[in-house]
Amino acid sequence: MMRAYKFLMRPTVRQAQALGEMLRDHCSLYNGALQERRDAYRHVSKTSIKYGIQSAQLKEIRSFDPECQGRWSFSSQQATLRRLDKAFAAFFRRVKSGEKPGYPRFRGVNWFDTVEFPKDGDGCRWDATPHDPVTRVRLQGVGHVKVHQHRAVAGKVKTISVKREGRRWYVILTAEQAQPEPLPKTGRVIGIDMGIANFLTTSDGGFVPNPRHGRSNAAKIEAAQQALSRFPRVRRNRRTANHRRAVEKVAKLHRKVCRQRLDHAHKTAVDLVRDHDLIAHENLTIRNMVRAAEPKPDPETPGSFLPNGAAAKTGLNRSIADAGWGVFLTILQAKAESAGREVIAVDPHNTSRRCPECGHTAKENRPTQEKFHCISCGYQAHADTVGAINVLRAGLVRRDAQPA
């Protein structure tokens, strides 16, 4: 199995400058390759240029511009061209499926933050000596950069990526390792119901509070964005140092919220995986849940619209995004796979309206957001707990229905 590790790099001033130049030159290569594809399609009888053609031109590009392109790793430049090729492949896939295409765009220097080295030892080297307290990563054109390795890397390192986040630099490793030993069986199963009032509710009646990291930092983010909006819109090369600091402050606050969500998701997933052999959850289509409210034209007054609850829907969408369900479920799946646990996604339809005692399903069974009261047998409980119980039962049915 493959596992990723992310470590903070501690470059010197010269190394940080070289890392920035590396990103800039790879961004230039990406944009140049994109422009070549656009020109070929527009002016040369709609000719499509593939990765193989552009990769074959790299040797000539490096010899023509040795100061910018020639000093970086050849394989990392190939990875940048593959990145563009994947963007076009995704574009054509969306066109074919009828989705919104999203044509690949040119990248600004501040929007190109990652360079990948496809193989350890080819333009890069992960140097983690067991008896050396200092870990370094060697990058062609940069040198040996110190790395804050806060945990050991298990397995063989396959790829290395360098990423910039604000003023910090990170190295991301993917290591191939054998399947770890599964955790001991606990004999316990659980179902979870994702929510807004509570982050999740378990089938045994437990609740995990929703930390609402975005809401708790909303005032600071709003103040920082208002301060940023006061600067006039000018060209990038004419922006002042105060403007750059205002941009950095907004980005720093958003990164803080992102780290808080990840921390909460990791801790919650670890607790579930350690204590349960099977975890059932709703198969949520979050993209559809956060769509904007559809406008309602007024048939009696052309050009006007009826109330559609857009403000309330916007608040709900913001709360769903703040909860971070998608990130949590992805982390839960990865940790369960490493621990030998089973995670099953079930259909969420009517899970909070079906009585766990008699099986009666009706909208009236849930008179309020929190209360469940079956109109058939009189069973009462918290609505989210009822949903988690039904999710667990559906997960057990699906597990038993799978062939051995």
Describe the fold and architecture:
- The chain folds into 2 domains: 2-176, no CATH class; 189-213 and 256-401, Nucleotidyltransferase, domain 5.
- The protein has 11 helices and 16 strands.
- α1 crosses α4 and α7 (241-275) crosses α10.
- With 404 residues, the protein is of the alpha+beta class.
What percent of residues adopt helix (DSSP H or I)?
40-55%
Average pLDDT for all residues:
91
The number of distinct β-strands equals: 16
Q: Unreliable stretches, pLDDT < 50, 5 or more residues?
A: none
Q: What order do the helices and strands follow?
A: EHHHHEEEEEEEEEHHHEHEEHHEEEH
Overall geometry comes to globular
> What is the number of domains?
2
As laid out across the biggest beta sheet, the strand order is 2-6-7-1-5-4-3
Oligomer: single chain
Sheet having the most strands: 7 strands, antiparallel
In percent terms, what proportion of residues is strand?
15-25%
Please tally the helical runs, counting DSSP H or I stretches of 4 or more residues: 11
Which radius of gyration do the C-alpha atoms yield? Answer: 26 Å
Structural class: alpha+beta
In short, what is this structure?
By secondary structure, the chain is α+β, with helices and mostly antiparallel strands. The protein contains eleven helices and 16 strands. The protein has helices at 13-43, 51-56, 58-64, 74-97, 213-216, 218-229, 241-275, 286-289, 310-323, 325-339, 383-401, and strands spanning 2-10, 114-117, 124-127, 135-139, 143-148, 156-165, 168-176, 189-194, 198-202, 207-209, 278-282, 296-297, 305-306, 342-346, 371-373, 380-382.
